[in-house]
Design goal:
Elements: E1 15-20, H1 29-40, E2 44-49, H2 55-65, E3 70-75, H3 77-87, E4 93-98, H4 104-108, H5 115-128, E5 131-139, E6 142-144, E7 147-151, H6 152-162, H7 164-171, H8 173-187, E8 195-201, E9 208-213, E10 215-219, E11 225-227, E12 230-232, E13 244-249, H9 254-264, E14 278-299, E15 302-322
């Protein structure tokens, strides 16, 4: 706990900004009104709606500069990522409310799927002063809360975003499954390595590692994502207090990927590290990637284009985060 505004007697003087993405999958006018009323009952609340890409980052930066105690995000993981980038390194805290189609980070920290119910959990956490300083991942100077991906998964996200907001809002997980198949068949070279990756571990027994890959994910916490109600877990030992985990796929052959996916879904007793196509590193402090051609990348499910060179690192104690009471041990 780092901010006295979160302690007992000062709770009713908190200054909150609610950032709403009106285009997010689970955001409705009714939900927004109910949440605004709940948050403003005991706090000084201002509300801002995002209108374009990057807008949420600027709203968060302004809130930090104006000494807001907390920025609450009602939106998907992309909006949450933008706000985190605006607040990193400041004392203004971040709180998540699930408003997207998957809500990976909100679910990871133990929030209910329903945004109104999650607001009740948030208010309980504020009353108890449940705020922690967490670490973030950084790739090419972009912070990420739960993961950054280079290669195949970013190409899948690109195809999903090409479908526009309407399909993403209403098709949800089936759209991602269809995009994954379509990307593998038509939009990604799955026969040759796409990049060379090196990483440095805080574990002295591991040190520096290097390998080629077709797809890599840097994890700031676990799970990687969700398929319906089931976690896709790549690195259960990675959390918001540890350095990064880096998982590199050296093949995209379906016959080799299916056992990895089965393990990640918790079907059976295996771990993805048992697969010969996986290079698995934990406690990673920093690293770099060199693409043989420009490679797509994404952070927290938000597609950011293509680059040939990447650097990544872990930044400890970068952000104040409101955590729901009784959440699992992720910090």
């Amino acid at each position: 706990m780092t901010n006295s505004a979160f302690s007992g007697t000062l709770i009713n003087t908190m200054k909150l900004l609610l950032v709403v993405n009106p285009s997010a999958s689970s955001v409705t006018a009714r939900t927004r009104i109910v949440i605004q009323k709940a948050l403003s009952a005991d706090h000084r609340l201002e509300v801002a709606a995002t209108s374009r890409r990057g807008h949420a980052t600027r709203l968060a930066q302004s809130a930090a500069n104006d000494n807001f105690d907390l920025v609450v995000v009602l939106g998907g993981d992309g909006t949450l990522n933008e706000v985190a980038n605006g607040l990193a390194g400041t004392e203004t805290a971040l709180a998540a409310l699930p408003g997207g189609s998957t809500n990976v980070f909100a679910r990871t920290i133990g929030l209910p799927d329903d945004p109104v119910e999650a607001t009740g959990s948030l208010l309980d956490a504020l009353e108890a002063g449940s705020v922690r300083r967490i670490g973030l991942g950084v790739m090419n100077d972009r912070y990420f809360l739960f993961h950054a991906g280079i290669g195949f998964d970013a190409a899948v996200v690109e195809q999903v975003e090409r479908q526009g907001g309407f399909l993403k809002r209403f098709a949800g997980h089936p759209l991602f499954v269809a995009a994954t198949i379509n990307t593998w068949l038509r939009h990604y070279n799955h026969k040759e390595p796409s990049f060379h990756i090196s990483s440095s571990s805080d574990d002295a027994d591991i040190g520096m590692t290097e390998t080629n890959g077709m797809f890599a994910v840097c994890l700031n916490t676990d799970p990687y994502t969700y398929l319906g109600s089931r976690e896709i877990s790549f690195s259960p030992e990675t959390n918001l207090h540890t350095p990064l985990a880096v998982v590199t796929f050296q093949s995209l052959s379906p016959s080799r990927l299916l056992p990895v996916l089965s393990s990640a879904l918790g079907l059976g007793n295996g771990h993805i590290n048992d697969s010969p196509i996986i290079d698995y590193q934990v406690n990673v402090s920093e690293g770099s990637v060199s693409g043989y051609d420009p490679v797509p990348w994404q952070v927290d499910g938000d597609y950011l284009g293509k680059e040939k060179e990447f650097t990544f690192r872990h930044e400890a104690e970068a952000l104040n985060l409101i955590l729901p009471l009784g959440t699992r041990d992720i910090y």
